[in-house]
Amino acid sequence: MTDRIRTRRIRFAGLCGLLLLFLAPLRADKKEPDLDVPFEPTPPQVVEEMLKLAAISSSDYVFDLGCGDGRILIAAAKQYGARGFGVDLDPQRIEECKENAEAAGVADKLTFVQGDIFDQDLRPATALTMYLLDEINLKLRPKCFRELQPGVRIVSHAFNMADWKADKEVNIPKARNDVIYLWIIPAPVGGIWEWSEKTASGAIPMRLTLTQEFQTVQGALTAGQGKPNRVRDISLTGRDIAFSAQFPEGKRLTRVAFKGRVDGDTIKGTRQAGKDAPQEWTAQRKPADLTGAWRIQTQNSPEPLDGVLHIERKNGQLAAKYAKGTETMPTELWHFYVWGTSVYFEVPAPDGDEDERGVIFTGVLDDTNAGGRLRKEGWSDQASWTAARGK
Length: 391
Ligand SMILES: C[S@@+](CC[C@H](N)C(=O)[O-])C[C@H]1O[C@@H](n2cnc3c(N)ncnc32)[C@H](O)[C@@H]1O
What we know:
Blueprint: H1 3-30, H2 44-53, E1 61-65, H3 71-80, E2 83-88, H4 91-104, E3 110-114, E4 127-130, H5 134-147, E5 153-157, E6 168-171, E7 179-184, E8 191-199, E9 202-213, E10 216-223, E11 229-230, E12 232-237, E13 240-249, E14 252-263, E15 266-273, E16 279-285, E17 292-299, E18 307-314, E19 317-324, E20 331-332, E21 336-339, E22 342-347, E23 359-364, E24 371-375, E25 384-389
Parallel strand pairs: 1-2, 1-4, 2-3, 4-5
Antiparallel strand pairs: 5-7, 6-7, 8-9, 8-16, 9-10, 10-11, 12-13, 13-14, 14-15, 15-16, 17-18, 17-25, 18-19, 19-20, 21-22, 22-23, 23-24, 24-25
Helix pairs in contact: 2-3
C-alpha cells in the first residue's frame, strides 16, 4: 500500500470517527442506528467498474452489505439483469432503496431489508459488494469463508481484507483511495491428491501434496517411489486449479500441464504433456479429519503460546478454540480457516484488545506432519509451531 493511500485511509477513518462522534448525541435523542460506517455513496463510474470487476451477469444474486441508497444493486439489475439483496442498518436508506428501485423499474429483481450486515445469511450470494472500512471487512472475513461457496466474487470499494491479498486490484481515480479490490472465494485444496499415470512401463501412482493459504497454493508431486518435485505455476481461482510439473520420459523431462475443477475431494480436468493432445485427468483427495485436541508447541516465539487447539464440528462446519499454557477455559478463535488439511488460525492478543491482531498460525494439520509458521507484525520469520493430536 502506498503512503498516499495509507494517509487517505487514515483520513477517511478519522473523518468517519468524527462524523459518528458528531452523530452520537443526535442518535441518543432520535434513536439513530448505531452505524459501523456512515453513508457515503459510491460514485456512478466506480459502481460501473465494480460490477465489471465482479463480472456480474444475469445469473448472479448480488448482495450489497451496507447498501446505502441501493445504487450498486440497481445498476447490477438494470445493466446486467442480476438479482440483488441489500441490507442497511439505517431504515431511511432502505426506504430510499425501495423508491429508487421502483423508479428504475427493477424493484421486482431486488430485495432490501433493514438489518445488520453481521446478522445476514450470506449463503445464497453469488457475488458480494461492499464499501465499508478495512476493519469491518476484516470482521466480515470469517463469515465470508463460512458462508460463501468457492467461486463467489467479493468486490470492495477502497477497503481491503488485511492479509487476504486481493485476486485483482484496479486503480480508478474516482474511487476513494483510488482503488477497488476483487477476491474470489477459493476452493479448499490443501491435502494429498492421488491418481495413476499410464506410462510405457505401466501405471505409476502419483501423489500431489498441496498446502494452501487463502488462494495461494504450493505443492510437490511424487511419481511412484521417486522424490517429491516442486509443482510450478499453480493458480487457484475459485474452483479452477492449474499447475505444471516435470515428468521424466526416457532420458528427457517433459512438462505436463494440469487443469481441473475442484468438487469436494475430486478434481476433474485434463493433463497435457508437451504439445500432445490433452487427456482426461481425475485426482482424488485422501480423506482427512482435523477434529480433536492438538497439542501445539512453538519454536522461537517471542511470546509463550504453547497450548491446545480444540477443533470440533458445529452445524456441519469446523470451529476451533485455543487454550494457552495451563488455561482451562479455551478462547473461541474468530479467525479460523481450513482448506483441506491446511489451516490458518489467529490466537488473540493477550490483553483482549479487539482491534489488535493476534498471532497468526499457518500450516498443516495431519497426523504425520503437523506444523507451520507463526507470524505477527515485527516478528522475524523464524517462529514456527508443531502439533500432535492428543488421544
Ligand atoms: C459508505 S456507505 C456505502 C453505501 C453503498 N454500498 C454504496 O457503495 O454506495 C456504507 C453504508 O453501510 C451502512 N451501514 C453501516 N454499518 C452497518 C451495519 N452494521 N449493518 C448494515 N449497514 C451498515 C450505512 O448506513 C451506509 O449506508
